[in-house]
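Annex B. Sample input.
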Amino acid sequence: MTNAIAEEKKAKKVLIIEDEGDMCLLLNIMLNGKDMELDHVKKLAAAEEYLQKQQPEVVILDNKLPDGFGIDFISHIKSNYPNIRIIMISGFDGSAKDVALENGADIFLEKPFTKNQLYEAIVELMKEKI
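Annex B, continued. Sample output.
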């Protein structure tokens, strides 16, 4: 098998930063069987620790977390890990979407979103990296 084919077959790494167990389970179910390696952390501090060791292609980032707001963490990710693409998910629309995109989020998905919306957003961001 050539390196190009092996690379294409390799599962894409996605980090989910979400503190609600039900939402994390739902995200895992939505992305199950989609040739992605999913990892999960519940706090921004744990996310930073993870990112120092591993570089996912995409981060799915919730806004309201126990140790801060995801919206404030976006610029940190973009400054320190510029190749990572970010999907911000939040139940708050309007200004949260505008701020998230201004801070560097690549895509904003308002809860509730569909399985197809989430998957298409990830696929789109991974295409941009090729």
